[in-house]
Design a protein that fits this description.
- The protein is mostly helical.
- The protein has ten helices and no strands.
- Helix 1 runs antiparallel to helix 8.
Length: 259
Amino acid sequence: LLLRLFVPPLLFYHLLRRRLSLAHVAAFFALFAASFPFFYAYRAFGLGDWRAILDQLGARDPEASWLAAVPVLTRAYDADSFVAVLHRTGSLVPFQYGASLLGLFTFFIPRVWWPAKPMSYSLQFADQYYSDVSLGGMNHVSPSLPGELYLNFHVVGIVIGFAALGFGMRAAHRMAQRGGAPGALLYGYLFLLAIHLVEGSIAAQIEFAVMDLVPAWIALRMLGPGATGRVGATVQFPPSVVRTARRYEGIAGPLTAQE
């Protein structure tokens, strides 16, 4: 939720309004990190119990305070998952050879229609690799991106998987640079996908991205050629919108032929 609230507007401002410097990005992430404990407290207590929120934020016990290192480190369990994958795959747990990705072909089928539909691999991973470890009640554990690539296709999977991610993000960035506002919108969803892929399982994150991208693409198509256009096309706005934007920027004089 935090990423969806903060990252897309930052990307859109950078791509469509004014390029941000490295100092701006660093300040944004510092603000993002500072707000994380408060949103974490909101998730636990809501806005109805401010005393409980303040008590938790001010707790001195490293196990209890959200401002301490322990809660932050628990969000980095993907490193543990990757080590478990390296240690147990091939000896205690067989290679999957793509089986963890099969959910891509079945996720759109309602479970009401198929009660025996296989569970997400993130729900299977904990039983396979953490059967002898207490997870504090968690049952949805990510294998991490390099871990899932390895448990499917060994080291070759990591090399090819990260190369594909890099080529994909390069193509998406070109679309954002040449596609105007529609390209930036779709790039925002793809950028979030790349971030979530690091922590979430591959199939689940691609499924979530499809559920975001398809409605956005349909909406852009329904807005007409002036909104979508072809890659590299200029987005056309009504003259009234252009005049308002010119006044906001302090630009005087009649509209130019290009405008």
